[in-house]
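Feature request, filed as a ticket because there's no other form

It would be nice if the structure record came with a short human-readable summary line next to the tokens. Right now we just get the raw output. Example of a typical job, pasted below so the devs can see what we mean:
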Amino acid sequence: MINKFFEKLFKDNTDAHSEPFLLNMAGHYMVSGRWEDALKCCDEATKIDPNSKKAWYNKGVILEKLERLPDALDSYEKAILIDKYYILPWYGKGVILGKQKKYKDELSCYENALKIDMEFIPALFGKATALDDLGEYESALIYHDKALLLDSSSASAQDWSNRGNTLSHLNRFEEAIESFKKALEIDPNFICTLGNIANTYRQMEKY
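Raw output as currently delivered:
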């Protein structure tokens, strides 16, 4: 199957055996949601250039999409071994570890990413979420707010909802409601936020 795939891919492309071409094709397939085809391109790219940090990183992203988390983690780690200052695999590794509920290790990954770029917004939100999962809500709120201060326009409904949950844990219910409302402004169909609002109102009645 793989050989036929590459026979077709290489047929009319004289530069198809190059790592840049394969990464471009992988990117095209990723945008199109053709994850298995993208994975084949990245596999081939890592064979051509085992030290291609971008190929290993992209492979990690693809494997994560395919729910192959241990393999994704391995790919991110290979990218980091090639270049420990490459920020994206540190973030990707953190996401995987969070899914595996390894929150301290997840936090460490985001901290490494922030050593490279202290204003890398995905890592700021990631660190906030990891701190939430560790029950360190005051610290988590600092990172939620820092990320939003840097660029609130890029914040997702999930980001605002996460901040609302942090505030709820701190018994700052009115502020939590405002964060949940922000989430619904971004995505009115973000159902879990409606549940969060209802739960917050119930908590407010206790105080």
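Something like this underneath would help us a lot:
The two ends are 63 Å apart (CA to CA).
The chain has a mean pLDDT of 92.
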